Amino acid sequence: MIQISSKFDSGNIEVVSTENPKAIRLKINRDHNSDFYQWFHFRLTGAEGVPVGLIIENAAGAAFAGGWKDYRAVASYDREHWFRIDSQFDGQNLTINLEPDYGSVWIAYFAPYSMERHNDLVAEAQGADGASLICLGQTLDGRDMDLLHFEGFGSAPRKKIWCIARQHPGETMAEWWMEGFLARLSDDTDPVVREIRQRADLYIVPNMNPDGSFRGHLRTNAAGANLNREWDTPTMERSPEVVLVREQMRQTGVDFCLDAHGDEALPYNFIAGAEGTPDWSDSRAEQLKNFMETLAKISPDFQTKVGYPISKPGTANLSMATNWIAQEFGCLSMTLEMPFKDTVDTPDIEQGWSPERCAHLGAAALDAIWARFEEL
Questions:
Q1: CATH 2.60.40.3120 residue ranges in the chain?
Q2: Which one of 230, 241, 264, 337 is the catalytic residue?
Q3: 3-108 topology per CATH
Q4: Which residues contact 98 (CB under 8 A, 6 or more apart)?
C-alpha cells in the first residue's frame, strides 16, 4: 500500500490522491501566514519496485516558478546520501518520476537539514578550542537562537567576522555550507584557521530561522515574516530572530559579514554585494571585487560572471541584511547565493549541487577570508 507522510521535522506536502501510483497527486503547503511556498519534503512508502509518478499540482503558483526549469528533485534512502531524480515541469505541474529500490524513500526540494542535525552541529562546534555556544534568546515557537563565538587567540584589537545562514529556512544549502565552514574553523591544526583566529573573533549563526526550518517553510518564520526584509525595523513580536542578532552585532561590531542563501533559478554560485547603499564607495567596491575573484580562484565551483543585477547608487533595500549591515557598520557585507539545481560550469549528474559540495565551498571561504584579511 502506497503511503506519503510529512509529519516530521521540515516536512511539507499535502496528499490529494494516491489511487493511481503513476499519477499521485500532491500539493505544497504555504508558509504560515504567507503566500510563499516551494519547499517540499516527504516520505514515500510501499512503492518498492513500482514505477511512481508524483504530480505537484500547484507548482505553477510557487514563489519562484521559474526555478522549476531544468530542476530535478532529490531523494534518499538513508537520509545521508541525496541523489537527483527525474523531474519535469510543464508550466502547471511538477512531475517527479522514480522506481524506488527500497520500501521507504525520502524526497525533497533540496537535501534537508533538520533541527536535530543543527543541534548536533552546534554541540560539536562548541567543543573547539576557544569556542562557546551562546543562546541569544528564543523564537516565537520557543526555539533557541544559537550563536557560536570563536574567540581570537591574539591580542586586541581583533577583527569581528560574522557569518549567518538560513534566513530563508528552505535554503538548506546554507546550513550545509555552514557545516563545512565550522568543521574547518574548529580544526586548530589548520594553518589558515590558526592565522585568522590570531587576528579575529568570529561570530556564527548557523540557522537564523529555526521555526521556519522545523515547520517546513520556504521563506518565512512562525509569524510569516521574511527575515531578510526585517533588518531595518524588526520587532520581537514579528521577527525576534533579527532583533536578537542585530543587538549582538551592535555589541561586538562587524568588520566583515557573509550571509549564506540559495537561489531557486540561477544554476551558479555567486555573491551579491551592497552596491546600492548610501555609503558605498570605490574602496568598498574594490574589496568586494577582490574577495569574489579570490574565492573564484580557490574554488572552481564559484564564479563571478553571473549574478544579480547591481543596484544603482542610493537604491539599496535597507531591510535586507547585507545592505543594513554594510550601512550600519561601514564594512564589507555580502550575500552568498548557491543553487537548488546544479552548477552549469562544474556539473554533477548524480547529485547536482549537493551537501558535500556546499561544505567544500564553506571551507574554501576561510581561504578567501585569509587571503583578503588585510583589506577587511
A1: 3-108
A2: 337
A3: Immunoglobulin-like (2.60.40)
A4: 51, 52, 54, 75, 85, 86, 105, 107
- The tens place of each residue's pLDDT in the chain, 376 residues long, gives 999 999 999 999 999 999 999 999 999 999 999 999 999 999 999 999 999 999 999 999 999 999 999 999 999 999 999 999 999 999 999 999 999 999 999 999 999 999 999 999 999 999 999 999 999 999 999 999 999 999 999 998 999 999 999 999 999 999 999 999 999 999 999 999 999 999 999 999 999 999 999 999 999 999 999 999 999 999 999 999 999 999 999 999 999 999 999 999 999 999 999 999 999 999 999 999 999 999 999 999 999 999 999 999 999 999 999 999 999 999 999 999 999 999 999 999 999 999 999 999 999 999 999 999 999 9
Q: Is 337 a catalytic residue?
A: yes
On whether the 115-375 domain is CATH 3.40.630.10, my answer is yes
Radius of gyration of the chain (CA): 21
Residues 6 or more apart from 289 whose CB is under 8 A from it?
none
Q: Where in the chain is the domain with CATH 3.40.630.10?
A: 115-375
Which residue in the block uniquely carries the three cell numbers 554594510? Answer: 326
- What does pTM read for this prediction? 0.98
